[in-house]
Task: structure prediction
Amino acid sequence: FKTGKAEFTPGNDKRVNGLLKVLTDNSRTLNAAFPNLRVTTEGHTDADGMPEANQKLSEARAKKVCAALKARGMKMPCVPSGVGSSKPLVSPEKTPSDKQRNRRVLVQVAK
Result:
């Protein structure tokens, strides 16, 4: 994601399409075994900014991914949530690349 935004960076559309393909290619098998499956999206931010703003931004990023999956035809329910900068992959953030890695959305299939 772009810094301070809930906008995809180049290449993210391709990732969303790939994720959607995995979900739809396996949806019959998954739904037969687990009829109440849902997708959860957990938004994250880098450590820049105020905690309240990062919380809202992480929620907006999670909603963006849910909306993109739904717009492309995903049928499973999608539940977005945000955690701000509380669960970094890289800490401390020493480089712009570190910050980029922490700006993400975790997508999971849950029952």
